[in-house]
Amino acid sequence: MEARLDHLVCWVADPAVSLGFYERVVGLPGVRAEEFREGRAGFPSVRVADGTILDLMPYESARGVDEGTGVRGTAGHPLNHFCLAVNREDFDALQVRLKQNEIEVTGTGTNSFGARGIAPETIYFPDPDGNVIEVRYYE
After folding, report:
1. Residue 2: inside a domain
2. 97 Cβ neighbours under 8 A, 6+ residues apart
3. What spatial distance separates the first Cα and last Cα of the chain, rounded to whole Å?
4. Rounded to whole angstroms, how far apart are CA atoms 59 and 79?
5. Which of 40, 82, 92, 100 is buried deepest, with most CB atoms within 10 A?
6. How far from the centroid of its chain's Cα atoms is residue 93's Cα?
């Protein structure tokens, strides 16, 4: 079986702040952003790739999500990190935006193995809620 990742849920304190961070700093386009801002969607998302989104779920929704999955204790559970693969130009542009927004790059790596082989460079940085984002490029 081959599957594609549909979505990840990131727990956030303030979805509006997180949406702004992912749109403005990381450079990912918002999904249901206007609906969220108008109160017609409970949370916003950002598009990672065709067919893959990152849901920015408010902590206060944790109980309902636990009930929805049927697995107790999973809502609000942190993830170690998630990784976005971008092209080299976007990788370089992201580093400029991180610096402009005073977001600290907390880790770096070289020749790191991933889904597409070996990535020459990778960086790690936190979002406003402490979720760790890894970004890399492949040649």
Report:
1. no
2. 24, 25, 26, 27
3. 27
4. 14
5. 82
6. 17
Which ranges in 21-87 belong to alpha helices (H)?
Answer: 33-37, 62-69
Q: Kindly tell me if the per-residue pLDDT of 52 is higher than 90.
A: yes
Token pair listed for 120: 């020459």
Exposed/middle/buried for residue 89 (C-beta within 10 Å: 0-12, 13-18, 19+): exposed
The pLDDT tens digits of the residues spanning 57-84 come to 998 887 666 666 666 666 777 677 899 9
d(CA 112, CA 118): 5
Number of structural domains (the chain) is: 1
The answer to whether position 1 is within a domain reads: no
13 is a domain residue: yes
| Dihedral of alpha carbons 52, 17, 100, 24, sign | positive
Greater confidence (88 vs 68) lies with: 88
Q: What are phi and psi of 41, to 5 degrees?
A: -135, 140
What CATH number did the domain enclosing 90 receive?
Answer: 3.10.180.10
More confident residue, 65 or 51: 51
